[in-house]
Each structure stands twice: as C-alpha cells, then as structure tokens.
Amino acid sequence: MSEKSGVRQRKRVEELKSEETSSSQGSDKPWDQRFKKRPPTCWEQYGKYFWMLLLFEFILLVVGIIVVLSMESPIKPRRIQFPTARPLEGALAPNTILQNAKRLFEGEVIGPESLVLLDGKIYTGTYDGRIVSIEDDKKITTIARLGREPCGAPEYEHTCGRPLGIHVSEHGTLYVMDGYLGLFEVNLTGEYELLVPSSRSYLGHPVQLGNDVTRVPDGDFFFTDSDFKWQRRDFPYSVMELSPNGRLMWFNPTSRFSNVALLDLYFPNGILLSPDNDFLLICESTAFRILKYYIRGEKSGDKEIFVDNLPGLPDNIRPSSSGGYWVGIHFTHLRTGSVPILNFLAERPMLRKQLMKVNGSREFWDGFLLYHLKGDKAGQKEVFIGNLPKVPDNIRPSRNGGYWVALGPGPVRQEESWFPFPEWLGARPWFRKQLVKIVRPHFLLQFLPKYGMVIELNKDGEIINSLHDPTGEVIDSVSEVLDTGDALYFGSFNSPFLAKLDYKSKPGKEKLIRS
C-alpha cells in the first residue's frame, strides 16, 4: 500500500473517531432535538376544539331539556292501555276495492264530512262553511252559508263555521251540527235557524267541538261535543291528550232546553239512532270503539261496548242498505302499521305532555258506545264494539240490517306489528306531554302513511266486511259512508273531492266485497 493510500486510510479512522466523539457529546441533548421533528397530525392540531365543541353541544342539550321541561304543556294527558290490535284477516283482510272508486268534483267539494240523501240529491257541508246539494253527480248548488266570510283557512273557521254532521228529518228538513257555531235547522230554500249556540255553557264548558247530530222522530235531538277543551282545527291536540273530555248532549225543541246526557267520552264523533229508537250508537274515536247507549226502556242510561279494538279511529257511523252499519276509519297505520305510534304514546302521558308542550285510569279508545234511549236500559251506555283496526268516524246503517263504519286516514292497527305505536303512545302520557311542547301535532299527521278503509258491522256489532285502499292513492280518508243501494258515497273531513263506488245489490256482491 502506498503512503498516499495509507494516509487516506488514517484520515478515515480519524474522521470516524471524530464522529464518535461528536455523537457521544450530542447524546446529552434531548431526544426530540436529535431527530428532525415530524408535522403534527390533524387530531393533535384540532382535537382540543372537537372536545370543546362536544362540551358546548352537551351544555346546549342540557339547557334545552331544562327549558322544555319548564315550559307549560297545552295538554294534560292520561295513561291509556290498549288491547292488542285485531289481525287484518277474515272480514278485515286487506283488499283494493276502494281503488275502484271515482273521484267527483275534485277541487270543487273540499271536506264533505257528512252526507245525506233527500229526493235524489246529496247534501253535505264543506270546508269553506257551505251547505251544498249535489244532483246526478254533476251539479253543485250552494244552499246556505251558516257563518260569515272570509272562509277556507283554519284561522277563519271559528267565524266562517265548519258544517260537520248532517241529519235529515222525516219532514225533509236538514239539521246541521257546525263544529264552531252550534246546531242549525236548515230548509232547502236556504233559510236556517240556530237551535243551540255553541257558546251555551254546560257544567262550566261551552260546546267546543260539535260534531254529529241525530234526532228521535218528532222528539229530542242528540249531538256530540267531541272535546270541550279543543276546537276542530286543534283536534290533533285532543288525539295526543287522550283525555275523556267528550260529551253526548241533548236538546228538546219544545222547551228549547239542552243539557249533558253523557260525560267522560273519548272524542265522541258520529252517532246514530237505532231503528227502534231505543238506543244510540256512539263512535268513540280515540278509544277505537263504538258504544251503545240506551235512551229508553229498562236499560235507559246504561252503556255497553257495541264493538271495540277497531283498526283505526272511527269517525261517523251510518246505516248500510243490507241492514247493518258503515263506519269510516281514520289513521289506520297508527295501530296496525309497522310503527303503531298511538299504542306506544298512549302509555306515556308525561312524554306526550313534554314533547308537545297526569296520569289517570286505563281505558280503551277504538270503538263505539251503545246508548239506550228507551226501554229498560234508557239512559244507559255500553260498549257496542271496540278494538277496531282504525279510528272509527261515522256509522250508518247497511242494507243487510247492520252498519257501515267509516274508518279514518292513516295507518292500520295490526296484531303482527313489530312496534305497536298506538298502544305505546297511549301508555306514555309523559311523552305526549313533552311532544306537544316542541312540535305541533298537525305537523306530525302529514307524515302518516295513507290508508283508506271502511268497515261494515251487522246489527250485533260484528265486523262482517271491510273495503280498503292500502296505498291511499284513490281514497286515504273516509269520515262517512252514504249507502244508496246502488252505490256507496264516501265523505271525508279533508279530501278535496267526493268519492263514489258503484255497489249494486245483486248475486255475487258478497263474494266481490269480501275478496
């Protein structure tokens, strides 16, 4: 090896020693100074802000809960326990028969709640406060306007009026129960007289939501006050409250005296006088039942269940041409849908109270009462039928000696529902109480699934038939059924049309409507 190369080798050794010395001296420095610093991660840089934001949101949540709980709720709900909903099978088996109905006067007749037939013409009341006649399914004529204009909006209802139940006498006179103004006698000439003003007070409460009316031939009138606390435009609050604020009223046209016949009813809606004039059938909408109330005879004053546990809220009850009754049903899916909310909230009154912003007895709210007018049970009431699949509205006779019952809009109550919402709702008054504090129930109703349904009862209160529109595309709400013998007309408190279904009495009809 040359000297030159040896020198180079020695230099490398010296450099190595120098580097080792330098390294040993640098070991006294902190660890993070001996290496190049890496950039901070996103979490290291902004994590503290995340925790600050989370803490702020938690504080807002706590403050919000405190504020809601301290607010006064508009309702005082009770705890309700519902029976398990009837399965949709047999006479309640779903079908699409209502989808065959035709819509008449779409956009011209809004909210034809109740229907009567007189001299070939149909008479009904509309959302804008009119009493109209319909001739040959083609011509509409305004007979009278009970209130004063402007009309056509919720804020005008209390002055414009809202005609609901209509009854026709054997003398061809119309009797109209206006939800705001009271009970009227209306002549076909357009002249009318106020018989019972809604401002008249009974036991400290005026008639707040007059609904349906009937009359004993040449005798007393009976009419329903669905809720002495809430007006018609606020009826969703009554549904959420589930309190027995309803009353059956009576009026004597000779003495001009009126009073309370029956107290503590769950939103009494449609009423119907029996063929023998000895009892009344009363739709208790928020009890999913129909009561039988005796007004004559040994049972006068007694009541019993005519039918209960209906698939929805019953509205009006009217005769069917077969001798039974038709019942309109509302809010079917609230009991029978995949999320039957009414069952859930009924058991949680405090929840209802807080959410809408105490507790009481357990009742059923899905049927009709039977109220006896004469005989041994006169003045008595009993449940005619309960546990209907929807909320019953009006009840009317059917051609076979039974009754047609209109069931309200919304979901159907079903036994197989994985979440029994009406049962859950009824048992939770606290939930209902809180709910109304932060959201209007009117807002919630628009999200309900649509389902049209009417049911037919026989004279014993047994469900013998039902007509459905599971999609609600043609009919999603039925308040009342008018059975002419050749066709069925369907009223509704909110639909902008009158629906008609050809329905002739001939062989094969039973098979058709039960399919």
TrEMBL record:
Basic and acidic residues: bias regions: 1-20
For this protein, the record's Pfam families field holds: SSL_N, Str_synth
Boundaries of each Strictosidine synthase conserved region domain copy? 216-297
> Where does the sequence pass through the membrane?
49-69
One cellular component (GO) term of this entry: endomembrane system
Q: Which family does it belong to?
A: Belongs to the strictosidine synthase family.
Q: Write down what this protein is called.
A: Adipocyte plasma membrane-associated protein
Organism of this sequence: Holothuria leucospilota
